[in-house]
Amino acid sequence: MNRLARLTARFTRITTTARTMAFTAVLTGCSSTAPLSDLPDLPPKAQQAQNSAPYHVKRNDLALFALSLLDTPYARGGRGPATGFDCSGLVSHVYKQAAGLPVKGTSADLGQTSRPIDRAHLQPGDLVFFNTLGPRHSHVGIYVGDGRFVHASNPRTGVRMDQLTNRYYAQRFEGAATLLD
What is the predicted pLDDT for the residue at 13? Predict the structure, then answer.
């Protein structure tokens, strides 16, 4: 597939995703919830937990920005969409552009500087680490939700999305971590 065809396919996917997200946002904005006065008498902490939404702007921005880079070429040592990305370059770029957080280093460095979390507590924007080359944390991706992660895979596939349950990655999964609070 030539470069123009890849870019056209990527643009089509991005615009389709944007339309779907806009439609979902409109539908979500139209929904309503019961007034707080209709809530049963709960202790204050329980009411606060019930009212808090699982939506985290920074985390969702990270996930959406990572998704916008799907099909970007892979380049060893690459740190930008114009030249391509390697796995840690993708993480650095996404965190800088979507969250304003300067993140540098290799996947192993990211594994050292991030706070480990349990896989069951993964949230969009968290990091997932794999052993694909032998050394610990030799590959990193950005978790985007629903068991999926975005990563700069290899020169053949570039930036792509995979499932954590994909046999290859499930066998090489080393852990999850976060750079956020």
Answer: 58
Any idea where the domains of the chain sit in the sequence? 1-31, 57-181
In the residue annotation, 56 being an active-site residue is answered as no
Catalytic residue, from 93, 121, 137, 151: name it: 151
Inter-residue contact 96 to 102 (CB < 8 Å): yes
pLDDT in tens, 160-173: 999 999 999 999 99
Residues 6+ apart with CB under 8 A from 47: 36, 39
- Which one is catalytic: 30, 56, 87, 93? 87
Decide if 87 is catalytic: yes
93 as an active site residue: the answer is no
CA dist 48 and 52 (Å) reads 6
pLDDT digits (tens, 9 = 90+) for 107-143: 999 999 999 999 999 999 999 999 999 889 999 999 9
pTM of the model: 0.71
Asked if residue 87 lies in contact with residue 106, where contact means CB atoms within 8 angstroms, the answer is: no
Look up tokens 């939700």; give the residue.
145
Is 57-181 a domain of CATH 3.90.1720.10?
A: yes
Structure tokens at 106: 């290799």
